[in-house]
C-alpha cells in the first residue's frame, strides 16, 4: 500500500503538533535542570504546565487518528501521538524530575495537593523511574513499540469494514421499511449489508433469515483477522515483558494495582462473584430463549450467539408485547439529541450554546457548556458513520480542564443513524448509548476544574470511569424522561404503558448479559495474566466462552482481533461491571427522589462529578450515599423482575 499524499490540512496539523512538541521539550529540559528550592511554585507548577501540553498532544492526536476523514491527516496524527507518547515516557522515567517532585515538602501543602504529590510519586515509581539506566532504556523502547502496536491493532479494526451480499430485497425480510429503503441493490443487482453498526445492529435484531444473520455475524467477528493475529500476539508479549521489567508477575497484576480493585486476583474473584449471582437468572432466561427459538426452528438444541438478539426481539414481541421496530419512530436522531441536551441542562443546571468552531468533518457540531455566564467547557458531536472513522461509540477528551488555565474540551464519537437526510430512526439501544457517552462527557466537563491536570476531569481510578456513564443510562428507561422528547411523527409522546413494557422486557436477559460480559472480562484478564508466549488466544476464547457465556463459540470466528478494548482497557474489561455495581447503588438514590428532580442531581454533581480525581472515588461515593457503596443494589437489580 502506498502512503496517501499529505494534504495541506495534514501539513498544518503536523506543524501545530511539532510546535507543541518543541514547547513541551523545552519545558521538560528546564524542569530537568531545575536548581534551588523545590516547591509547588518552582517544581509542581511547571510540571503541570508541561502536563497541559502533553494532554493536548496526546488527546487530540488520539482522536484525529480515529476520526479525521483525511487519511493523510490520520497518518500525521499517528506519528504525532507516537512522539507525544515518547516524550511522556521520557518524563515518567526522568530521575531529575522525580527527585525535584520528591523534594517538595508536602506538609506545607493543602490536602488535595498533598494527595496529588503522593499519586505523582507513585506513578513515577510505577513507570520505572527508580530502575537502573539499562532497564529504563528497555522500558522506554518497549513503551514505544506498544504505542505503535496499539495503533495498528485499532487501525486494522477501523479499516476492516466487511459485508455480505443479498440476492434480492426479499432477503431483507423482517427489517423495518426505512432500513429496506436505505438498502437498494447496487450496480451488480445485489444488496450490500456491512458490519458498520447502523447496518449490523438492525440486521441482527430483525432479519428473518437465520443463515444470513449467521453469515453477517461471522463477518463481524472476523474483523481484524488475519491482520491482527501477529499484532495482538506482539501487543500481549510486549506488555508482559514490560510488567516483568517493572517487577510484577504479569501485566494484569501491574495494571490493577492502582485501581479500586487493587489486584488481578480480586478482579477474578469479582468476575466469578458476578457470574455466580447471575447464574440462576441466566439459566431461566436461556430456557425461555430456547423455547422461543424452537417455535421457528423446532429441532433447535441450543441458542446461537447470532440468534440471541433476534430471538430476544421475538420474545419481547410475544411475551412482553414490545416491538422494537415500533419504538424506532419515537427516536429520530435530532429529537433524541435535543432531548438529552435539554434534560441534562435542567438536571445539572447547565445551558448549551451551539457555536461555530473549526471541525474535522462538516457533519460535526460544536457546543459550549455554560453555568450562568461562566464557560465550563466545549464539546463536539461526531455522531454518524463514515469511511475510515472509529466504529464504536466513545467520549474522547481533547483538553482536560485546569482551574484558571483552561476549560475542558471533549468529543462524542458515535455511529448512529441520521445525518444523511433520513430521519435517522434510532434503536432504543442507541438512545441508551447516547446517554452513556453523555455521562462521560459531563464527568469530563464538570470535573474539569481542578488545579492539577492529573486529577482533573475523569482522571479518576479507571474502574470508576464507567460509573457516571452507566448511571446516566438509566435515564433512557424512565417514562417521564422519555416522554419529554420521544415523540412520533405526529408529535405523540411515547405511551407510558409502552415504556412500562420496555422495562419489563429489559429485565429479561440481564442474567445472560451479565454472564456474557463476564466472559469478556475474564478473557481480557486471561490474555494478560501471564507469559503469552505459546498461548493460543482462540483456544482461550473458546474455553472461557464455554465456561462463562451461555452462547457457544461459533467456528471460524475470532472476535479477539476486533476486541478494541484489548488495547485501551487491556486486562481491565471487568471495570464496566465494577462501575455498574457502584452505579446501581448511586441510582437507588435517584430512584427514590426522581430522575427529573434537580436536588439529587445537584448533590451528585457537587459531590461526585465536580471533585474529578481530587479524592478517592470510594470517598466521593460515600459522601453522596452517606455510607460505603455495596454490592446489594446490584444483586437486587439482577434478581428482580
Ligand atoms: Zn463508557
* Major β-sheet profile: 5 strands, mixed
Uncertain segments are none
Mean pLDDT: 96
| Helix content bin | 55-70%
The CATH H-level homologous superfamily of the largest domain: Neurolysin, domain 3
CATH fold call of the largest domain: Neurolysin, domain 3
**Sheet with the most strands: spatial strand order:** 3-4-5-7-6
What is the CATH level 1 assignment of the largest domain? Answer: Mainly Alpha
Written description of the protein model:
- This protein is an alpha+beta fold and 641 residues long.
- It has four domains: 8-130, Glutathione S-transferase Yfyf (Class Pi), Chain A, domain 2; 161-220, no CATH class; 225-319 and 509-641, Orthogonal Bundle (Neurolysin, domain 3), CATH 1.10.1370; 329-459, Collagenase (Catalytic Domain).
- Helix content is 57%, strand content 6%.
- The protein has 26 helices and seven strands.
- It has a five-stranded mixed beta sheet. Strands 1-2 form a two-stranded antiparallel ribbon.
- Helix 16 (428-446) crosses helix 17, helix 17 (466-473) packs across helix 23 (575-593) and helix 20 runs antiparallel to helix 21.
- The mean pLDDT is 96.
Amino acid at each position: 500500500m502506498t502512503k496517501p499524499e499529505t494534504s495541506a490540512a495534514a501539513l498544518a496539523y503536523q506543524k501545530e503538533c511539532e510546535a507543541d512538541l518543541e514547547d513541551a521539550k523545552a519545558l521538560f529540559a528546564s524542569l530537568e535542570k531545575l536548581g534551588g528550592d523545590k516547591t509547588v511554585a518552582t517544581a509542581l507548577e511547571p510540571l503541570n504546565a508541561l502536563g497541559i501540553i502533553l494532554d493536548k498532544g496526546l488527546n487530540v492526536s488520539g482522536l484525529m487518528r480515529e476520526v479525521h476523514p483525511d487519511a493523510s491527516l490520520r497518518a500525521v496524527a499517528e506519528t504525532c501521538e507516537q512522539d507525544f507518547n515518547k516524550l511522556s515516557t521520557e518524563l515518567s522515567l526522568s530521575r531529575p524530575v522525580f527527585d525535584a517532585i520528591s523534594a517538595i515538602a508536602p506538609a506545607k501543602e493543602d490536602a488535595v495537593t498533598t494527595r496529588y504529590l503522593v499519586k505523582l510519586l507513585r506513578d513515577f515509581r510505577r513507570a520505572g523511574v527508580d530502575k537502573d539506566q539499562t532497564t529504563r532504556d528497555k522500558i522506554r523502547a518497549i513503551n514505544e513499540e506498544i504505542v505503535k502496536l496499539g495503533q495498528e491493532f485499532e487501525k486494522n479494526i477501523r479499516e476492516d469494514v466487511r459485508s455480505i451480499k443479498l440476492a434480492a430485497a426479499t432477503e431483507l425480510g423482517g427489517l423495518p421499511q426505512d432500513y429496506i429503503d436505505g438498502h437498494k441493490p447496487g450496480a451488480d443487482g445485489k444488496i450490500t449489508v456491512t458490519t458498520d453498526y447502523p447496518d449490523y445492529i438492525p440486521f441482527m435484531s430483525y432479519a428473518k433469515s437465520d443463515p444470513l444473520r449467521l453469515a453477517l455475524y461471522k463477518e463481524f467477528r472476523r474483523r481484524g483477522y488475519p491482520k491482527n493475529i501477529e499484532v495482538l500476539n506482539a501487543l500481549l508479549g510486549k506488555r508482559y515483558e514490560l510488567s516483568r521489567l517493572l517487577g510484577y508477575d504479569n501485566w494484569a497484576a501491574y495494571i490493577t494495582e492502582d485501581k479500586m480493585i487493587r489486584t488481578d486476583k480480586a478482579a477474578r474473584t469479582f468476575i466469578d462473584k458476578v457470574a455466580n449471582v447471575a447464574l440462576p437468572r441466566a439459566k431461566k432466561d436461556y430456557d425461555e430463549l430456547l423455547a422461543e427459538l424452537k417455535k421457528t426452528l423446532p429441532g433447535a438444541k441450543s441458542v446461537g450467539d447470532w440468534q440471541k438478539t433476534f430471538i430476544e426481539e421475538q420474545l419481547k414481541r410475544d411475551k412482553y408485547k414490545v416491538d422494537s421496530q415500533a419504538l424506532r419512530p419515537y427516536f429520530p436522531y435530532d429529537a433524541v439529541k435535543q432531548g438529552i441536551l435539554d434534560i441534562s441542562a435542567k438536571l445539572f443546571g447547565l445551558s448549551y450554546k451551539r457555536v461555530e468552531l473549526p471541525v474535522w468533518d462538516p457533519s460535526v457540531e460544536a457546543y459550549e457548556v455554560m453555568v450562568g455566564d461562566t464557560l465550563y467547557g466545549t464539546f463536539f458531536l461526531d455522531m454518524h458513520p463514515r469511511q475510515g472513522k472509529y466504529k464504536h461509540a466513545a467520549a474522547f477528551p481533547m483538553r482536560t480542564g485546569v482551574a484558571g488555565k483552561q476549560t475542558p474540551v471533549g468529543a462524542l464519537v458515535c455511529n448512529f443513524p441520521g445525518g444523511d437526510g433520513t430521519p435517522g430512526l434510532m434503536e432504543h439501544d442507541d438512545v441508551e448509548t447516547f446517554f452513556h457517552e453523555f455521562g462521560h462527557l459531563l464527568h469530563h466537563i464538570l470535573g474539569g476544574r481542578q488545579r492539577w491536570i492529573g486529577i482533573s476531569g475523569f482522571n479518576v481510578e479507571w474502574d470508576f470511569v464507567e460509573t457516571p456513564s452507566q448511571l446516566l443510562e438509566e435515564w433512557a428507561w424512565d417514562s417521564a424522561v422519555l416522554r419529554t422528547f420521544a415523540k412520533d411523527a405526529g408529535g405523540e409522546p411515547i405511551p407510558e404503558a409502552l415504556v412500562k413494557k420496555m422495562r419489563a422486557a429489559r429485565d429479561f436477559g440481564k442474567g445472560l448479559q451479565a454472564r456474557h460480559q463476564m466472559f469478556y472480562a475474564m478473557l481480557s484478564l486471561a490474555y494478560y495474566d501471564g507469559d503469552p508466549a505459546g498461548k493460543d488466544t482462540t483456544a482461550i476464547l473458546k474455553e472461557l466462552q464455554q465456561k462463562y457465556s451461555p452462547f457457544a463459540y461459533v467456528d471460524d470466528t475470532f472476535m479477539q482481533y476486533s476486541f478494541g478494548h484489548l488495547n485501551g482497557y487491556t486486562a481491565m474489561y471487568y471495570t464496566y461491571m465494577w462501575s455498574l455495581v457502584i452505579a446501581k447503588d448511586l441510582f437507588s438514590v435517584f430512584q427514590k427522589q426522581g430522575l427529573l428532580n434537580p436536588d439529587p442531581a445537584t448533590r451528585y454533581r457537587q459531590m461526585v462529578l465536580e471533585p474529578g480525581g481530587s479524592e478517592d472515588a470510594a470517598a466521593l461515593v460515600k459522601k453522596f450515599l452517606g455510607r460505603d457503596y455495596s454490592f446489594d443494589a446490584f444483586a437486587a437489580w439482577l434478581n428482580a423482575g
